[in-house]
Fold each of these.
Amino acid sequence: MGRLRMGTLAGILAAAVSLSGQAHHSFSMFDHSKAVTVKGTVESFVWENPHVHFNVVVPAGTVRDKTAAGTWNVEGASTNIMFRQGWNRLSIKRGDPITVVGFPLKDGTRGMSLIYAITPTGQKLWQDVNRPRVATQG
């Protein structure tokens, strides 16, 4: 009976570890060699794990590069990491003007890994202080 219990416990632990590993992904889809800056309006803000996400709408006619106009999906860190950087679920809301700096997606679609954002009050909120500092483009 003891071996059966140990085998069951080992199976449950193995399943739990494999599920948690699948829930997280890397940031390898982002180009960490450059950063882009977009200015727009917050369309949505989702304060959830495993990563905070928000969408920023960049209006056509406000950017020189026409491919930058549209909706950008911005991926932050976990709620815990972002909270330690000063973020909370009320930091930004739908309709807020915002400037966002991040590492763009390698495939050229409108998405980025957040470096920092400048809120409507002028506050600069970082995603993670351990990220390297890079020159911004955009």
Amino acid sequence: MTRSEELFARARSLIPGGVDSPVRAFGAVGGTPWFAERGEGAFVIDADGVRRVDLVQSWGALLFGHAREEIVRAATDAAARGTSFGAPTEAEVELAARIVEALPGVDMVRLVSSGTEATMSAIRLARGATGRERIVKFEGCYHGHADALLARAGSGVATFGIPGSPGVTEGAARDTITLPYNDVEAVRTTFDRDGDAIAAVIVEPVAANMGVVPPEPGFLDALRERCTAAGAVLVFDEVITGFRIGYGGAQSRFGVTPDLTTLGKVMGGGFPCAAFGGRRDLMQHLAPDGPVYQAGTLSGNPVAVAAGIAALDLAERLDPYPALERTAETLMEGLRGAFAANGIAARIGCAGSLFSVSFTEEPVRDFAGARAADHERYARFFHHLLAGGVALPPSGYELWSLCTEHGDDEVARVLDAAGSFAG
């Protein structure tokens, strides 16, 4: 047995499914998951010492690759001063200031520990501020595993074919309206019928949990228009896109300003750190200023905050986004050429340095299109690239991520492996 096989066998006796997040179990692609030992820039090294180009990058969190020196040093220095206080720190204020300055839709922000916590809290705040109960979400968009947001979600829920989840009560699901992504007419019809009861619309401004599906022209603008007219709160889930497709997030890239924004991944520099923020009048409904309660013992954890400040300072100072997009375009063009040469139908969805491959002839514009792709072929492609020294996400519904350490040699290695894939 390999070391990863030994670890997985032991893990399955101690942890449900052997993993602490379901998609890591390789259920969608088959085989035994590799266990990570360490990361170095664009590479990940597994427990058996196999070194692979990493196109997961902690699901988009690592904008500057594994073990970036400035981020590691900031976290190490913070840990030496104390790992948790249960009291406010100056660093929390500094991280909040950077977020407020970067994002046009954020006047005030509260730090939390995970993307799920951020989206859950934003929905509670929207309901508390509006006095309404219903929320609108979109098929294939994943907003964490809070009860009201699991209906027809993407990411791991889509991977395992779960339309909802046992344990979510009928009452929790009753107030969630789920619509097709990129369907402006469905949004209009829903608001015409239920607008007075809708507290919030939550959306990934770039869907990145059914593969990467960009918004079609006018879609985000229509959400903004309808929410404003109905007095509903527009929530952009930028846990993935925030500081990833641009320093100002998707809201700056597409010129549509939400009322609330949720953040995570890049803003934590690889540590468990997230946030939600928005208009000042909405955020002041939160306790202790207002009656909407939210709290967390590890919110604003000093080690995670230090890593987040280091990551955002690097992003602002180095402006890595143009170079990342050039690398993404080179890689995508190479993949398109490889698939065409081998007679394989494939579509590549992309936004900035986020992209994904769907094995289908038709454009993917929504969850129905993502589900119609050939996921068995993706599983074969996954294992082919794994054998060729490339680590892909173990599901056709997940995003691929680049970091600043992916250069010409790494791109060539990916394309070499992809070029010999026969389908």
Amino acid sequence: MANAWAGEVTAATTSVEPLPMAAAQGPSPVGAAVPPSLHSLPGNQAGTDAALGPLPPLQGNRGEEIYSLDIPDEGIIGRYIGGLLAERRDWLQAVLSRSNRYRLVIAAEVAERGLPRELRFLPAVESGFQTYAVSPRGAVGLWQLMRNTASPYGLRMDQWVDERRDFMRSTEASLQKLQDNFNQFGDWFLALAAYNCGVGRLARIIARYPDADFWALRRKGVLPRETAAFVPMFLAITRVLSYPGRYGLDISWDPSPDWARIPLEACVDLRLLSRQSGVPLDVLASSNAELNFPMTPPASYQYVLKVPHEYEQAVKETLATASVPLMEFNIHVVKPGDTLSGIALRYHVTVDMILEFNPRLAPRALHIGTKIMIPMTPLRSEGS
């Protein structure tokens, strides 16, 4: 669902679209021709990353391209690379830049689970590394999770949060989903296909062709059209983003953020926290994109605020200052004819939100003169 308060962000729509085949012979990478074959070796030979260990040289134009997946020499992958470079180079550059914000978090989770490191690029084809991305079918977040997919993996989706937009929690859930797919199908390309079209649908296809791998199923034309494009597109993007310097993309040398997690003992208004701590509101908002309002849930949620490490001390010091109010409320005095649903509508909140902050309130027995605490949402704060 679209974020209810990040007015400056427009929810994106995402889909895997076949690239124009006329671009199949698009420009070759800078400094090297597209290799005729790809390589899968157990280790990498240059460069380091704290989460991943040794990595291939990102900007080097020499040597083999080294992957942990056994990527086949399928012509469609090269054609997609050509199309991307010819038609969507600016998009690739934007995706590469956005990915830096989440690179260490995703890479560390991939490494901890012992999964193929190429999976860290899956959000590129899913959402373009945009936490607020929403597909026409309602998939949300970096990893484009549907509600029925996210719920079994413990992601919370309610009036306060949609954890499909939480880049940490959604990464954990999505990688577990991919691991479960692999455990079922025994093949990473089939696991990726199932991530796109659904486990049940792929299982029914495989039941008809039990000896076929993904590429054989693709050649038979029995896969959904989007899924047939999804896996080779993912591999094409993986090749480019693994070695962006070879493909003429600019690489930022800014380090990927190191994230701090700060447990909260009460509901916090991010607008007040920003003003009191000096941390930019857009930093607090984008770091906690799962929030449906610029305020964290009540204490019962045990919410953990995420901020880049450089802001950790300022936030902690502000939270520790007892004199600083970090939540703003309206006080509504119950009048004749008031109902809880009517009060909620008036203040642009939900009944559940009112009850969270007024635990002794009896919804069906409102007494005239009772004072009710109403959390101030952006709509109410702006006087609408």
